[in-house]
Amino acid sequence: MSLLHLLRYVIVCLFCVTTQARCEIDVKNNSIFNTIEFEESVESVDSVEIINVATTDSIVDDKIGDGLEIVKNSLQLLFLKKLKSVYVLSNSSNEQCRNASRVYSLALDEHESWALKLLDASSKLQSGLITGNLIEFGSYTQCVHVLNAGPGRNINGKHCLLNVLPSEELMKKILFYRGITAQSYRNVRLVFLNVTLGWSICLPDACQPADVFEHFEHYVNEIFEGLNITLQPDIACSTLVDAETPFSNAEKAVFGLIVALCTLVIISTIVEMYKRRKDIDEGYEIVFSILANSRWLIAKNKHHQQMACLNGIRVMSIIFVIMGHRYLMSIFFASVNTFEFLDWLLYYSSQLVIGGTVTVDSFLMLSGLLLAYHLLLNHHNGQKFNYPLFLLHRFLRLTPSYGFAILVITVFGHRFGMGPTWEENARFVQESCQMYWWSAILYMQAYVNPAKMCFLQSWYLSIDTFYYVTAPLLLIPVTMNKYAGFAWILVVYIASVVVNFKQSFDWQWVVNALLDKNLSTSDFFIKHYSQPHIRASPYILGIVFGYILFKYREKKVVMSPWLVAFGWTASMTLMAVIILSNRIFLDPHYTYDPLGSAIFISTHRSVWVLSLAWLIWACIHGYGGPINTLLSSHVFSIFGKLTYSAYLIHMQFQFFDNGANKMPNYFSNLSLLRTGFGDIGMSFFIGYFLTILVECPMYRLSLLLFKGRKKVSPNVTVVKMKNPNN
Fold first, then answer.
1. Half-sphere exposure of 702 (CA within 13 A, CB side)
2. What are phi and psi for residue 701, nearest 5 degrees?
3. How far apart are CA 617 and CA 541, in angstroms?
4. Could you give the maximum distance between any two Cα atoms of the chain, in Å?
5. Is residue 135 within a helix (H) or strand (E), and if so which, with residue range?
6. pLDDT tens-place string over residues 368-394
7. Is 194 helix (H, G, I), strand (E, B) or coil?
8. Are 65 and 46 in a shared domain?
9. Using an 8 Å Cβ cutoff, are 311 and 632 in contact?
10. How far apart are CA 206 and CA 517, in angstroms?
């Protein structure tokens, strides 16, 4: 049989199948086709016409052209029919959805553009599943921009995202092909525990999530039979019409508040300009002036020059925090190469991000240091401690900016974007604040609602305020009896470390438990990471170091070059060890050791803080060299005043940015560094306006409120230290 005959054989077989023909094939006598019988429908009458086809090749050749066209059209119809059975909910139990779907089906048969857009916008099987391209968003924008379609112009495009959850056993098998053995699975388990396979469908807006679930549950069970995979019932759907809702009364009220605040700023600025021109004394009326507040922002504080290195540490720490949260978002949100995250975890350079969580402990240490230093200085100057005023100043210092940010995000957050996962993420950010705004501004979330925190990063404010409120219980005994006071501090410190160790051992926490796709609701975050009694050791060490700095505030400290060299070497080495040692616990050959993990978790933050204490000590007493020059730069002094506002808004910006994505991210260092530095710039940019409009005016008002009183807050007491170089 020649190749040409074989080709003809295949084509005519297809012709017979697609035209419902009955064929008999005979190849004995060098004849391809013996007879071909087929039924042909005639529009006017129903009849059956029998056609005997000669066995000559010429007759077959005449039929091939017509056969090819019939085959092509028939295959197109078969393909479209199969697509409609998947993407069109024609058999929905919801009558409205069923009727709209049938209109959609007929429009597809007629090749109407709006129907083709809906079909085209739906997901098809994506490539790169093995490398972790698990979620396919389809064409979200194309889908939701189908508006007023259909014969009645009453059909709008609705985008729905389905999530298919594999069992943990199946995930273990998948990760095994990526080199993750049963031994090393525990180290990365939390990253992939609830990873889902996402798939999008675009359909008429009359169909509801329940209709989509009902339709696709059958297909998922059929396709993944035997793989223990389930379709999640919480299907996220969105339309452009839903996003264009009218402003609520709450939105109008908050918008009016913002307009009033901006008007007050403008008036205050004009008043200041007028008074400065007329050389008139300034008072309350200029506290909202953007000129006065900007001058405060860029002004040099000569009284704090010896502790200026703290500004650099503060700014560098917030940069690490923002960048670390950007990397953390890559776990929370979809990537086209999810499984390449496993390779990234093993790079030593990656430990700068993974181990960089200790920068939060830098903030805790600085808070304890400054609080102890200023309270001891006030006591030394004969100022009577006023505890209610002490608490009031803290509340007025932090709450206005915090409350304003909560108000804006809670009321307007859902309007900042749209996308396949937007509703879910906006709800995550807003709902907790709508429910627990009161515990947020009272700084009680760590104990009241740790699983539903308003502003996820505000766990820090809760524990820092807890330490602020209770710190006098540690410091007052020191002022009464130094030895008894420090014995008491030592007992509290040891108790915190022991509790940390015991909980880590009993719960068998892994060192890198923060690498959790469901971090905000994880046991580690709720019971360990965000709890004041667990995280107290860095703050307590900060209090002790603040006492030491206070005692040596007017003394010239002389250290030998060998001691300085040893101090810097030990400090830098311990910092590097603390950060890079996370790699040990991620190694594929590492076997989980509950005792070793518990020891590391309960002590490594203290080691970091002690190393940081040397850096501060050396810089303050003239042994910091170029490091002190860098950290004490006036640029850091300016940005240091913006760190609180940048801290407040950066994570919400990251959630909204990722939630508005119309396609998955690509996980790579270059991509994340680019977006991370963008986060830093945007956070400080927005933070500037939050500082100028809210934080700084409220701060200046509090100073005027306490005018005539000696300050009790570490933020307003003048610090005078002798320059060791004089």
1. 23
2. -65, -40
3. 14
4. 120
5. strand 135-136
6. 999 999 999 999 998 889 999 999 989
7. coil
8. yes
9. yes
10. 33
Average pLDDT of the chain?
85
SS (H, E, C) 343-387: HHHCCHHHHHHHHHHHHHHHHHHHHHHHHHHHHHHHHHCCCCCCH
Give the contacts of 107 (CB within 8 A, at least 6 positions apart): 114, 115, 149, 150
Could you list the residue range(s) of the whole structural domain that residue 535 is in?
Answer: 300-705
CA distance 661 to 198: 14
For residues 207 and 307, membership in a common domain is answered with: no
pTM of the predicted model, to two decimals? 0.86
pLDDT of 606-632, one tens digit each? 999 999 999 999 999 999 999 999 999
Are 205 and 156 in contact by the 8 Å Cβ rule? The answer is: yes
Q: What CA–CA distance (Å, rounded) separates 149 from 138?
A: 20
Cα 386 from Cα 371, distance rounded (Å): 14
Domain contains 62: yes
Same domain for 227 and 160: yes
Q: Are residues 93 and 59 in the same domain?
A: no
Residue type at 103 in one-letter notation: V
d(CA 293, CA 674): 31
Report the number of distinct structural domains present in the chain. 3
Strands 135-136 and 197-204: parallel
User: Which of 472, 429, 425, 479 is CA-nearest to residue 452?
Assistant: 429
Mean pLDDT of the region 108-118? 92
Burial track 43-52 (b if 16+ CB lie within 10 A, e otherwise): eeeeeeeeee
**What is the C-alpha to C-alpha distance for residues 203 and 90, in angstroms, rounded to an integer?**
11
Rounded CA separation 298/292 (Å): 10
How far apart CA 315 and CA 635 sit, in angstroms, is: 10
CA atoms within 13 A on the CB side of 2: 6
The residue to which tokens 């307590």 are assigned: 540
The torsion defined by the Cα of 502, 505, 510 and 513, in degrees rounded to 10, comes to: -30
